[in-house]
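Supplementary Methods. Inverse-folding protocol.

Structures were first reduced to a discrete structure-token string of length 175. This string, shown here, constituted the complete conditioning input.
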């Protein structure tokens, strides 16, 4: 091997190492930028939620805040003493109804029918076979996802499911 070839090989190796070091430095800076962004977002969230109506430097005028924004008002015992507690939703209540394959199109379930409900907080659920499934994202935090009864879409294939938005819309209409 001639000295010229050796020098070219060593120069290539040196350039490759420099490129690797620059890339590692860029990736390290990217991580710092991401970490800084997360810290900034957390600080902004803290600043927005820490605003108190008594604070003279509050960015939101005290009159614009609602009484329940930061401190939920608890009902007094005198106000709830004679109040009737609403019963759980049943078939026939204004917040639930029985739906079946013929009532909603497209029908996204493998079962023929069930009880569609709107729970507090616009949580749409579907009950069948003594199991209540969370249909929308709000309800899936409390109820199981409807995967065992959710039908595959034969037109799409690849295990993709039938569109469930008609059920969600019908459930929200019950709220």
């Amino acid at each position: 091997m001639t000295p010229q070839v050796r020098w070219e090989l060593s120069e290539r190796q040196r350039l490759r190492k420099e490129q690797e070091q620059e890339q590692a430095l860029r990736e390290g800076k990217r991580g710092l930028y991401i970490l800084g962004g997360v810290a900034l977002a957390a600080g902004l969230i803290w600043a927005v939620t820490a605003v108190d109506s008594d604070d003279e430097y509050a960015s939101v005028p005290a009159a614009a805040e609602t009484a329940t924004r930061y401190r939920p008002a608890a009902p007094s015992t005198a106000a709830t003493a004679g109040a009737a507690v609403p019963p759980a939703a049943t078939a026939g209540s204004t917040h639930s109804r029985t739906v079946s394959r013929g009532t909603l199109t497209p029908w996204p379930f493998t079962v023929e029918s069930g009880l569609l409900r709107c729970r507090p907080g616009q949580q749409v659920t579907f009950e069948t076979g003594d199991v209540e499934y969370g249909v929308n994202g709000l309800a899936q935090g409390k109820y199981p996802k409807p995967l065992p009864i959710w039908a595959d879409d034969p037109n799409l294939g690849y295990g993709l499911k039938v569109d469930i938005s008609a059920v969600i819309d019908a459930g929200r209409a019950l709220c």
